[in-house]
Design a protein that fits this description.
By secondary structure, the protein is of the alpha/beta class. The chain has one domain: Rossmann fold (3-Layer(aba) Sandwich), CATH 3.40.50. The chain is built from 9 helices and 8 strands. Bound molecules: 2'-deoxycytidine-5'-monophosphate (DC).
């Protein structure tokens, strides 16, 4: 099976770049961040204290996460309901790093992620794909960009979607999320030894995709 792992901090362009790359190479795009977001959505919408490990662990068995691809677009289901749109809020973005620290949740999602990669040729994006989920991936990319550029991109994205956005607040949240994702005990955000770093700060999306597609065509 073909496995391409794309990791990096929030806002580096992973999902857009992974999606286009997967389309070009006719592979399945898997956004693992959406799974953590859907779990976080469960806790928030059920008023469960997600900062309390005991209460999180108590509810894990009540959570069922599924992915389906409809016309090439990933849809994420929480207990049978499509929550693809609902998980893209700043409230979820702020809370998700806390939920993603939980070992039992990571184990549950790891099983789903590995099962998908076993059955499909994938481009999978996340934080720990190259280091933990798919350690034998044939191509690993660590996609980075300066935190200011990432905040600018997220700001523009929210405005485009007609949402209110505050650049300074986004910048503070991104820095906090980077810190939480990089310093957590289990599967932190880290470059795999055999990953290739791409800094997209001053690169167009198309250029980054071209680099990855070229690397993939060389390797697979
Ligand atoms: O890529 P994203 O912003 O949608 O990811 C949301 C959060 O999920 C991110 O802050 C960290 C967590 N995450 C993770 O811990 N491991 C992954 N493989 C993917 C995401």
């Amino acid at each position: 099976m073909i496995e391409i792992a794309i990791d990096g901090p929030a806002g580096a362009g992973k999902s857009t770049i992974s999606k286009i790359t997967a389309g070009n190479l006719k592979l399945l795009y898997i956004d693992t961040g959406a799974m953590f977001r859907a779990v976080t959505f469960y806790f928030i919408s059920n008023n469960i204290d997600y900062e309390n490990e005991e209460s999180v662990n108590k509810y894990i068995d009540d959570i069922c996460i599924e992915l389906k691809h409809i016309n090439g677009i990933q849809h994420i289901y929480l207990n049978g309901n499509d929550v693809t749109k609902e998980i893209r809020t700043e409230e979820i973005s702020k809370a998700v790093s806390v939920v993603a620290k939980n070992q039992k949740i990571r184990e549950m999602l790891l099983d789903i992620q590995r099962k998908i990669a076993k059955e499909n040729n994938v481009v999978m994006d996340g934080r720990d794909i190259g280091t933990c989920v798919l350690p034998n991936a044939g191509l690993k990319i660590f996609l980075v960009a300066s935190v200011e550029e990432r905040a600018r991109r997220r700001y523009k994205q929210l405005v485009r979607r007609g949402k209110t956005a505050d650049y300074d607040e986004i910048l503070v949240n991104l820095k906090k999320r980077d810190e939480q994702d990089m310093t957590r005990e289990i599967a932190p955000l880290k470059k795999a030894n055999d990953a290739i770093i791409i800094d997209s700060t001053n690169m167009t999306l198309e250029k980054v995709v071209k680099i990855i597609v070229t690397l993939a065509n060389e390797r697979f």
